[in-house]
Amino acid sequence: LTITGSPATLAEALAEMLEVEQQALDAYKDLLPAVAGVPVLEDFLRKQVAVETEHVQEIQNLLG
């Protein structure tokens, strides 16, 4: 991973990972209303929200 042509620090890499995970979490949350009433898709998205929420929390903990 490089940011602006130089090697990224651990903190920079974690911050970038956090941004990507947060974007994924937001996207899954945004999709939930669109699949309301379709149990299989609702269940899938709720599981993905839980997974991404955990990822975001883990990265936040690493960043301190």
Write a concise synopsis of the structure shown.
By secondary structure, the chain is mainly α. The chain is 73% helix and 6% strand.
Ends distance? 21 Å
Structural class: mainly alpha
Range of helix content: over 70%
Q: H/E element string?
A: EEHH
Helical stretch tally: 2
What does the average pLDDT come to? 91
What is the molecular shape?
Answer: elongated
Instruction: Please count the beta strands (DSSP E, at least 2 residues each).
Output: 2
Low-confidence segments, given as residue ranges, are none
Multimer state = single chain
Beta strand %: 5-15%
Sheet bearing the most strands, described?
Answer: 2 strands, antiparallel
Major sheet: order of its strands? 1-2
Whole-number radius of gyration? 15 Å
Description:
With 64 residues, the chain is mostly helical. It is built from two helices and two strands. Strands 1-2 form a two-stranded antiparallel sheet. It starts with a strand and ends with a helix.
Secondary-structure map:
Elements: E1 2-3, E2 6-7, H1 10-31, H2 39-63
Antiparallel strand pairs: 1-2
Helix pairs in contact: 1-2
Q: What are the main properties of this structure?
A:
mainly alpha, two-stranded antiparallel ribbon, 64 residues, 73% helix
